[in-house]
Amino acid sequence: MKKIFTILAFSFLVGCAQQSSITQTGEFRHFLWKFFNDPEFQKEHVLFPLEFVYYQHDENEFDAALATRYIDKENWKTYTGPNHYRCETSCFDLVMYDNFERKHKDSNKRVLSFEGVHNGIFSSLYFERIESKWYLVKHEEFDN
């Protein structure tokens, strides 16, 4: 009986561990949708002052230096995100995995990058889960 109980308990724990990264991925996707669609929710889920890293161009627009500034809550402007976060029908996410099991690592960090093809867009939003809630902790904007 003890052996059967041990096997059942182990099976349950393995099942929960496998579910963990799937649940976490779904949870983060839901968070992103709400983050881009609800301005108040978004403001509550930004770690202020937010670090904003960008290229600062000189007056000739030829040379650029890396610059950092910090955005406080009073100067926050809502991010609308990509169009597919505001769709109501025929929505989809483009998801990439680094394994054939299509599972993400169980992590408290996520980076959402917008990398254009031949259009100069390169922007990244850095999120971190702190005490079970996701927060935007950094924004990089290297668009041309």
UniProtKB/TrEMBL annotation:
InterPro entries: DUF4348 (IPR025590). Pfam families: DUF4348 (PF14254). PROSITE patterns: PROKAR_LIPOPROTEIN. It comes from the Bacteria. This is Lipoprotein. The lineage of its organism: Bacteria, Pseudomonadati, Pseudomonadota, Gammaproteobacteria, Cellvibrionales.
